[in-house]
Amino acid sequence: MRATKPTRARPSAPTEKRDAILEAALDCFVEQGFHGTAVPEVAKRAGIATGTIYHYFPSKEAMVNALYRKWKEHIARFVMTAFPPSGTPREQVSAVWRAMVEFALAHRNAFVFIELHPHRSYLDGESLAMEHRLKDFGAAMVKRAQGLGHVKAGPPALLMELVFGAFIGMMRAHWEGRFALGDEERALAEQACWDTIALHA
Amino acid sequence: MRATKPTRARPSAPTEKRDAILEAALDCFVEQGFHGTAVPEVAKRAGIATGTIYHYFPSKEAMVNALYRKWKEHIARFVMTAFPPSGTPREQVSAVWRAMVEFALAHRNAFVFIELHPHRSYLDGESLAMEHRLKDFGAAMVKRAQGLGHVKAGPPALLMELVFGAFIGMMRAHWEGRFALGDEERALAEQACWDTIALHA
Amino acid sequence: MRATKPTRARPSAPTEKRDAILEAALDCFVEQGFHGTAVPEVAKRAGIATGTIYHYFPSKEAMVNALYRKWKEHIARFVMTAFPPSGTPREQVSAVWRAMVEFALAHRNAFVFIELHPHRSYLDGESLAMEHRLKDFGAAMVKRAQGLGHVKAGPPALLMELVFGAFIGMMRAHWEGRFALGDEERALAEQACWDTIALHA
Amino acid sequence: MRATKPTRARPSAPTEKRDAILEAALDCFVEQGFHGTAVPEVAKRAGIATGTIYHYFPSKEAMVNALYRKWKEHIARFVMTAFPPSGTPREQVSAVWRAMVEFALAHRNAFVFIELHPHRSYLDGESLAMEHRLKDFGAAMVKRAQGLGHVKAGPPALLMELVFGAFIGMMRAHWEGRFALGDEERALAEQACWDTIALHA
DNA sequence: AATGAATGAGGCTTCATTCAT
DNA sequence: GATGAATGAAGCCTCATTCAT
Predict the structure, then answer these.
(1) C-contacting chains (≥3 CB pairs under 8 Å)
(2) Tens of pLDDT along B46-78?
(3) Can you give the pLDDT at residue A13?
(4) What average pLDDT does range C82-89 have in this prediction?
(5) Cβ A116 vs Cβ A58: under 8 Å
(6) pLDDT band at C12 (very low <50, low <70, confident <90, very high)
């Protein structure tokens, strides 16, 4: 009963609870969508009371925006960290491809939420601004490779989207059990996607 | 070809109102998602009273399932009709690719709804059973091409998904204005996707 | 095509349809109550279209009032017809009792509707005015019997209600299968109800 | 017995709101029937918001079933508590009769709801199972009295129903103002109902 | 007269959010 | 901070009634 301000030793208790909320929300949104998920459902999944959510987020929309930004940043940082700036285009594509596969397998729901769900109706301006960071990065990578004569001519965005779309299709089919993503399949897919954009004799 | 007015004698055929509902629902669902769309919103966009929707569909869920099946069937029939059974693999891929592009451009919202939205939380068993018809067809096409030695070895489903995913990525980027899908881009993309699966010397 | 007014021979077609509606309504109301019954349900049970009901009754409330009056009158007339004005009180009670049993068995749903359902919330003034006709008649019968010294002293309405309530309880229990209403039981019940009000030495 | 204020410290016990809902529902159902009562009406009469009802009952049907069981149990316990197991039949009938009158006068709406309303269309199996508890008890009482030679021969259920029906008729007529239920009337009615089943020399 | 599609107010229920504890 | 009961607006759906055919 030492007055009002106890010298709290543990620094991260509040962050832990916030993370629990975001994780629960992620699972709910992936399974039922944003509008199909009730806030008390998220609270129950996070093991807290409904009202507690409103100590960490002012609204359901703020929560989904925080969730979106968290993972959008996470994946971008993860891929860019893996990127070898001085490698050949083939090496760069390979590194980025592998990073994305690694990320998607490690954070399935986050990947599904970020890449497979339409967010337009509830994202705010700041979130929307982040939407194309990774794709712009990919397009720039393609553009450089075109300059070096390793990659087909044409709109970099188009070539990049073909590869990125192929990647998403692969992951989705894997998760749906339509094929098993083993080492051989990863190598095959990576090579196939390189062939997609590569300049063939 | 008498200018603008088609030979439509009766103003309200029996299925006309049902179609108007499905069209309004399609637009709403694409913009705001199934759970984000209120039934009166669909009614208003269809130009009818809310209650009228329930003369054509027993529930909102039945409506979205009817919508899903209608377009899933439509696209499958459209693609399969364009498929040349006796063509070379290259010709077959080309024909299917062009049919899909044509369909997507002609029925943008239907394509977006069918291919870009997650439906698991509201589709019923019968709808889910249709989910992979087209993809199975594509995988069979790939398998035949593998047998003829024109296409890379590996799980047909994987190769098909790479191409299908690339196609989806292309259409989405086009609609988002990230590049313009002109004749040259179509030819480029088609060739690139053939390269994705083709067996390169 | 003889102009507008065909010389219709059949006199009672419209009445037949009206009766069909009232019969269907009676069944529905007994099973689910007035507010628990939808007008289209009555129409379907009557084998006609929903709109047709509104050619015979201006509203659902008017329909239920017509139904109430029809049967209330029917039962009152039936009982009063059976009443022997010059009989002894015992004979009168017996005659009325038997008439009521006969009516209830012949028109079960009508009896249940009239006597076992609370109507206050939808009956209009004219219907409510009929409510106690039969009971007033019964009370008068009791009063006369009191005057002759055959029946206990006390409020005629009370004695009459004891008998009438016993009668209703008997019929309900019979229909619920709690006992079988054979000849012996009818005789027993009639005597018991006479004992209820009779002046015992 | 300290005048008017019972020892109620906390103003809002946990079950107090639930009870307020049930009381409001009872009044509404008695006046307008189950289907004729809107949930917001119950809420308004209970002095709470509509949504609050759904914290205490999962549905309107669950609410009416809870209400039915509450009072059905209450009345059964009340009557059985008053029952003198070792008394003569005449004493037993008298005790039960007086208990029922006392209960009906103290809880008019509960009595009306339980005994005067048809519930078939919304009661669930568990509620229906309670329906005849009290009547079975009454029939057993009659049967014992028959064994002792104090009561007429015949189906116990029939005799019991005659008395129970008479009781209901009496209460209804009293509440409708058709006679005043004073001490003399109670004594008269009780004796009359004993005469109904008693074996007369 | 008969039909049944259409209407829209109103019913049951859910749910984002608040607030007293 | 944490709780969860309470709120009431809004969502899905029903239904009494109308009206063009």
Answers:
(1) D
(2) 999 999 999 999 999 999 999 999 999 999 999
(3) 66
(4) 96
(5) no
(6) low
Cβ contacts (< 8 Å) between D163 and chain C: which residues? Answer: 166, 169
pLDDT tens, position by position, A37-54: 999 999 999 999 999 999
Span D13-57 CATH architecture: Orthogonal Bundle (1.10)
Spatial distance between the Cα atoms of B146 and B125, rounded to a whole number of angstroms = 33
pLDDT at A6 over 90: no
> Cβ distance C90 to C141 under 8 Å?
no
Cα distances (angstroms) measured from residue C166 to each of B184, D174, D176, D197: 94, 16, 18, 11
Q: Report yes or no: A44 at the B interface, CB cutoff 8 Å.
A: no
Domain A12-57 classified CATH 2.60.40.10? no
Residues with CB under 7 A from strand F: A 13-14, 17, 48-52, 54-56; B 37-40, 50-51, 54, 58-61; C 37-40, 50-51, 53-54, 58-61; D 12, 17, 48-52, 54-56
Residue A17 pLDDT exceeds 90? yes
d(CA A171, CA A180): 10
CA distance C112 to C171: 9
DSSP-H helix ranges across C57-124: 60-82, 89-106, 108-116
Cβ within 8 Å, pair C196-D166: yes
Query: Per the CATH hierarchy, to which homologous superfamily does domain C61-197 belong?
Result: Tetracycline Repressor, domain 2 (1.10.357.10)
